[in-house]
Specification:
Elements: H1 2-16, E1 38-47, E2 59-64, E3 71-75, E4 79-83, E5 91-95, E6 114-119, E7 133-140, E8 158-166, E9 181-188, E10 198-200, E11 214-218, E12 240-244, E13 276-279, E14 284-289, E15 296-300, E16 306-312, E17 323-324, E18 327-330, E19 333-335, E20 350-353, E21 365-371, E22 382-387, E23 393-397, E24 410-416, E25 419-421, H2 423-433, E26 445-448, E27 454-457, E28 463-468
Parallel strand pairs: 1-24
Antiparallel strand pairs: 1-28, 2-3, 3-4, 4-5, 6-7, 7-8, 8-9, 10-11, 11-12, 12-13, 14-15, 15-16, 16-20, 17-18, 18-19, 21-22, 22-23, 23-24, 24-25, 26-27, 27-28
């Protein structure tokens, strides 16, 4: 009970401490809560066990390893769990917090911990350079080693490290390799806005430019408003989407490669980093690719006003911290004057406002999936995303010309015994039925399976739910 309350307090505090003054609402018309609702069914796919103290795991990210077909899910406290394609045989794959790895996962508060993980596309292919390799992206309390990335801030609250693990037998039920190798270590100046997602482009095939390259979201370093001005600074790793060759060695620390096809690779200017793929991001929690056209999209958490879903292309500037979504960011507020008026900025395809009555005190975009499957016909050709605290699920037309804003955003509800409910309601009713503390927020994350399978994760009941027709 105490831990639940403490986590909730820290979650509130991470927003409250850095809150800015309110500004004029950029979207005066609320999301049309009852228009064009899509209702989908779901099943309880798997359950991840509670921790030793009896608390639900803080589920964060889930992928399917293509070669083995195993579904792997992470908890923020540092564990990777594996399960079969049908959700059975749930077991611990690796505990990054095990003292023998000497990582010391920092999972205090609501934003720190094991952020993301990814399997190399050659993980199950014997005789290839990526055989057995997977990557974890975690916050750590071990700040003894010298960092590779520094923010320019005076503080060092913790580090975010990108680790490479090499399994001897990828088919083994649990990790059987040695200690991980550090690709980079980023010294964090504040306890919030740490890493984000890492991932390989699942559409890239051998011989493609993107094949085997690892995308890494690195937030602006935290506090509020990007006080270190990292987002627009091409000499800073923070506030960026990086693209690395994890098997290369021509980086400044020699632990990874810089793809020659990166937009700033080979730039002789001392103030431009070759690792940067795109810049001007604030808190790049989730990204994904559209199987129809290869486009990449990012869910970037906003400051005080605007949450956004934005396309990401090579060399793109997403605007932060001179722009928050479609609006200029001035004196710690958004200005409604001349939206989308700067040349060279990549604007959102969808964005929504914190003041909308659908949301709670905290607002944070999450997701996302461009759903091109016929398995759930109602979602076909929809870009699906959500709001993390409230657990609201949304969609927009993936192929419609978009000018941003929230006018095109529609809701997705879950069918439970014939009744349409929000994801938070589903979690709360499960809590009540099991005699647990009833969650006040959803902490929604998505998991991914073959053929656009969408799994719903949360931090309050350990249940992975699969969307169904």
């Amino acid at each position: 009970m105490f831990r639940t309350a403490l986590i909730g307090l820290l979650a509130l505090g991470s927003s409250a401490v850095f809150a800015q003054a309110s500004s004029t609402n950029p979207f005066a018309t609320p999301i049309e809560a009852s228009r064009d609702i899509i209702t989908v069914h779901f099943s309880e796919f798997a359950r991840i066990p509670n921790d030793d103290a009896g608390f639900a795991p803080r589920l964060m990210h889930m992928v399917t390893e293509a070669g083995t077909g195993q579904r792997i899910v992470s908890a923020m406290t540092g564990q990777l769990y594996a399960m079969n394609a049908d959700g059975g045989n749930v077991h611990l794959y690796v505990d990054i917090n095990d003292p023998k790895w000497q990582v010391r996962v920092m999972s205090a508060g609501s934003e720190r911990g094991l952020q993301s993980f990814a399997f190399h596309p050659q993980f199950s292919q014997a005789g290839t350079p990526g055989f057995g390799k997977f990557y974890t992206y975690t916050d750590t309390g071990n700040t003894d080693p010298a960092p590779d990335y520094v923010s320019g801030g005076e503080r060092r609250t913790h580090d975010t490290v990108l680790l490479e693990w090499t399994a001897k037998n990828p088919q083994a039920a649990s990790y059987d390799g040695e200690a991980p190798r550090v690709l980079f270590r980023a010294a964090q100046p504040f306890p919030n806005h740490n890493g984000g997602q890492i991932g390989f482009n699942p559409l890239a095939m051998p011989g493609d430019e993107d094949y085997g390259l690892l995308y890494v979201g690195l937030a602006d370093g935290g506090s509020g408003g990007d006080p270190l001005n990292a987002g627009q600074n091409l000499a800073s790793y923070f506030g960026k989407i990086l693209r690395l060759d994890p098997l290369g060695h021509d980086s400044s620390n020699g632990q990874y490669g810089i793809p020659a096809s990166n937009p700033f690779a080979g730039d002789n200017r001392s103030d431009t980093l070759g690792e940067i793929y795109a810049y001007g991001v604030r808190n790049p929690q989730r990204f994904n690719w559209d199987a129809s056209n290869g486009h990449m999209y990012l869910a970037d958490i906003g400051q005080n006003q605007v949450e956004e879903i934005t396309p990401v292309s090579k060399g793109a500037n997403l605007g932060w911290n001179t722009w928050e979504g479609s609006y200029r960011y001035v004196d710690r507020e958004v200005s409604l004057d001349n939206p989308r008026s700067a040349p060279g900025i990549t604007w959102p395809v969808a964005e929504y406002d914190h003041a909308d009555p659908l949301f709670q005190r905290q607002v944070a975009v999450t997701g996302l999936v461009v759903y091109r499957s016929d398995a759930i016909p109602a979602l076909h050709n929809k870009l699906v995303f959500g709001d993390n605290p409230s657990g609201e699920l949304f969609y927009i037309d993936a192929d419609a010309a978009s000018q941003g804003g929230q006018s095109a955003i529609r809701r997705i509800l879950l069918s439970d015994g014939g009744q349409a409910k929000t994801f938070l309601q589903i979690i709360q009713e499960k809590n009540a039925a099991e005699g647990s503390d009833v969650a006040q927020r959803a902490d929604l994350r998505f998991g991914y399976g073959p053929d656009n399978q969408i799994y719903l994760l949360n931090k309050h009941d350990g249940i992975i739910r699969l969307l169904q027709p």
